[in-house]
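Researcher: Sequence recovery benchmark, item below. Answer with residues only.
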């Protein structure tokens, strides 16, 4: 089963990934449009595509605006019932598309993700999405198969299809009408956590997201920005505050104050571990968050003015993932208190 689906791969100087992973996409997606959206690459990605993959469509963005702006600009030019947003460093597998498309036949399901395993060790979940994403009460993200930097071995323990809070931007199938209905990605994020913000805004309209583990992909991870990069630390801490400011419906001041406390502890721990550059990244993240706070408050107000009353909060964990991991010693998603999940 195939459908009106556009597989859109965002690329920036990623010729090596296109060489390695486009063959699997072409082979296992025979009836789908495959489009490479290029963020003004300075390598020879475009000439490579024109030479070896002349059937693949190319969209050239006006600038390298990061993940969020790059996809927004490209998708504004693409008409399709479904968008499959796919990282360039992902190997797909036979039959990967059909289970995802079937999941979206439910009118309430806005999007879904496959099971994401590590390309370098295909028995282990990959950091970016694993088997579906969740948020705890302080809005720290985690996954089935990954808690912070700990990834589990895949023994089929999370092979059931279920509702999640957010789907991974590394491989996300989403209904185009809903993507555009909410205005796409927030371009102030640039990269990282923009997909969680997108899913949160969509769930405020009552829609749901699912993980479909019968679809499997393998992700290199850190293809454009290493997981250990200080810039990634900066973006994750800053963008988490952006996301909370926009979407949290409670008393914002108290939540941000508490996150300031928790982020301060994280900064100290980076220092103790001999990574002062990451401590500096946390400080810069907070500095730049406060610079953009007025803009984020306007976005918060705009969301509130929409008077969305159908928030689907399934996938929220009403416990603290920090407490579970670092005080209770929880190493696996299956070990969490599942009575604390909204269902």
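Model:
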């Amino acid at each position: 089963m195939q459908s009106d689906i556009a597989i859109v791969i965002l690329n920036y100087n990623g010729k090596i990934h296109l060489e390695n992973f486009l063959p699997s996409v072409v082979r296992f997606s025979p009836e789908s449009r495959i489009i490479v959206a290029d963020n003004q690459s300075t390598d020879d990605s475009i000439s490579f595509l024109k030479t070896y993959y002349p059937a693949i469509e190319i969209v050239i963005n006006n600038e390298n605006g990061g993940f969020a702006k790059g996809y927004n600009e490209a998708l504004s030019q693409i008409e399709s019932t479904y968008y499959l947003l796919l990282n360039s460093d992902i190997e797909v597998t036979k039959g990967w598309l059909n289970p995802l498309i079937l999941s979206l036949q439910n009118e309430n399901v806005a999007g879904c993700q496959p099971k994401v395993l590590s390309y370098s060790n295909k028995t282990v979940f990959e950091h970016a999405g694993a088997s579906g994403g969740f948020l705890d009460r302080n809005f720290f993200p985690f996954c089935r198969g990954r808690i912070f930097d700990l990834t589990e071995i895949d023994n089929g323990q999370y092979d059931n299809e279920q509702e999640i809070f957010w789907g991974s931007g590394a491989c996300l199938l989403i209904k185009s009408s809903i993507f555009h209905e909410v205005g796409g990605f927030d371009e102030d994020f640039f990269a990282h956590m923009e997909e969680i913000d997108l899913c949160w805004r969509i769930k405020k309209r009552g829609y749901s997201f699912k993980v479909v583990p019968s679809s499997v992909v393998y992700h290199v991870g850190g293809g454009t920005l290493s997981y250990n990069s200080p810039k990634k630390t900066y973006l994750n801490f800053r963008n988490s505050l952006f996301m909370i400011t926009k979407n949290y419906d409670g008393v914002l001041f108290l939540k941000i104050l508490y996150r300031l406390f928790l982020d301060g502890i994280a900064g100290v721990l980076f220092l103790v571990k001999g990574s002062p550059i990451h401590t500096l990244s946390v400080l810069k993240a907070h500095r730049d968050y406060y610079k953009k706070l007025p803009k984020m408050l306007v976005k918060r107000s705009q969301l509130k003015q929409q008077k969305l009353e159908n928030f689907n909060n399934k996938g929220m964990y009403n416990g603290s993932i920090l407490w579970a991991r670092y005080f209770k010693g929880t190493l696996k998603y299956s070990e969490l208190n599942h009575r604390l999940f909204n269902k």
